[in-house]
From TrEMBL:
Residues 14-405 form the Cation/H+ exchanger transmembrane domain. One of its GO terms (molecular function) is sodium:proton antiporter activity. This is Sodium:proton antiporter. PANTHER family: NA(+)_H(+) ANTIPORTER NHAS2, SODIUM/HYDROGEN EXCHANGER. It comes from the Bacteria. Gene3D superfamilies: 6.10.140.1330. The keyword Cytoplasm does not apply.
Length: 410
């Protein structure tokens, strides 16, 4: 199946499932699409093992032709991060910069090691042999909260604005740190080599380089936007920032996610008032909202379909079930430390720690990262464990975080 056929099938399924969910089920759109994709995937598996054995190889071949990891990390992520940052209020985010910064840096690193060591203990407890370094790889890929999942679900969850800003801000910022930690852990796991200087240099190159590139892209785009007043051209300029900027970041080995967040936040806050007319901003806002919703729908559809390529042996799924509370425990620790450190200087909303813990959703980025790992027994195990954690995060945490927030902050 070529790329155009695959895209047509995905968009058609996403539209059908979105309509069916809106008409008959009533879940948040992204969750409803994922649930229906899961149901369809399970149906394909059951039919493939009974009456239509050719269905499973067809479904797996279709997913292989898409390449979930490349589609998300090298395609959708740039658009979704830019769109998310475009509508973030920088003034409100700046007021919470310390807790957001600590959660997105130290919190990710702390969670990586807590999850890694807990995973090593759990895996050995149930007789699954896996080196500690691969457990730390799992910790790195599952620790960052997913901005796509967070932005897609919190919009309708009813979380208080102050807590929503912290969760969204953290999820937008932590990708750069998480990517560096992930690359370091994978490098150690595959080559056995890493130095403190090399790790520091990689962090500076990726994170700081991505920040500088984002500022540069935003500055150039701002000047171009301010010089004209034609919304079609101005939308095209923002598309160039995303497509061209992300490609440039990739070629320079800089953090594309950080560059997109910085560029989107600056254009959405500074350029909206000083470089665009109200009419242009209205058109641009509607364009990026629509694109964001469409890509989210396709992404959550893909998450639901990925069940077709999972292993269904008992060990990996048992490990996944046991790791769900372990990941939540690590998230609790990663949230509690910065909140308690900063509580001396500022007042947090009632229930801040449990809401931040439960609202730290995992999603497509974790699945994409684990699918990018080199082929091997470790990858097969971690794919299933990651999928189990992501499913729980989206289906259970995503559907209840609003209710929890309202109860604790009332």
């Amino acid at each position: 199946m070529n790329s155009l056929d695959a895209a047509g099938l995905l968009v058609s399924l996403a539209a059908l499932f979105a309509w069916f969910n809106h008409r008959f089920i009533g879940l948040p759109t992204t969750i409803g699409i994922m649930v229906l994709a899961l149901v369809m995937s399970v149906g394909i598996l059951l039919a493939g093992h009974t009456v239509a054995p050719g269905l499973i190889p067809w479904g797996q071949g279709f997913l292989d032709s898409i390449d979930f990891s490349a589609t998300v990390l090298d395609g959708m992520l740039s658009f979704l991060l830019f769109a998310g940052a475009l509508f973030v209020d920088l003034k409100t985010l700046a007021e919470r910069k310390y807790v957001v910064g600590m959660l997105a840096t130290g919190g990710v690193i702390l969670s990586t090691f807590i999850v890694g060591f807990l995973a090593w203990g759990v895996f050995n407890l149930i007789g699954v042999s896996i080196p500690l370094i691969w457990c730390l790889v799992f910790g790195a890929l599952i620790s960052p909260t997913d901005p796509i999942a967070v932005l897609g679900i919190l919009k309708s969850a009813g979380v208080p604005k102050s807590l929503e800003t912290k969760i969204v801000g953290e999820s937008l910022v932590n990708d750069g740190v998480a990517m560096v930690v992930f690359l370091v852990m994978v490098g150690i796991a595959t080559t056995g080599q890493a130095t403190l200087g090399g790790v520091a240099l990689l962090f500076v190159q990726e994170a700081v380089g991505g920040l500088v590139l984002g500022l540069l892209l935003a500055g150039i785009a701002h000047r171009m936007l301010a010089s004209i007043d034609q919304y079609q051209v101005e939308i095209l300029i923002t598309l160039a920032v995303v497509l061209g900027g992300y490609s440039l970041a990739h070629s320079l080995h800089l953090s594309g996610p950080i560059a997109m967040v910085v560029a989107g936040a600056i254009l959405g806050n500074r350029s909206r008032d000083s470089a665009m007319s109200k009419s242009t901003w209205s058109h641009l806002e509607h364009f990026w909202e629509l694109l964001d919703e469409m890509l989210n729908a396709v992404l959550f559809l893909l998450i639901g379909l990925e069940v077709l390529v999972l292993s269904f042996t008992v060990g990996p799924w048992l490990a996944g079930a046991l790791m769900i509370p372990m990941v939540l425990l690590a998230r609790l620790c990663a949230v509690s430390v910065p909140v308690m450190m900063l509580s001396r200087f500022r007042t947090f909303s009632p229930g801040a720690i449990p809401v931040l813990t439960w609202g730290g959703l995992r999603g497509g980025i974790s699945v994409a990262l684990v699918l990018s790992l080199p082929t091997g027994d470790e990858r097969d195990l971690l794919v299933t464990v990651t999928y189990a954690v992501v499913l729980f995060s989206l289906l259970v945490q995503g559907l209840t975080v609003g209710r929890l927030a309202r109860r604790l902050t009332a």
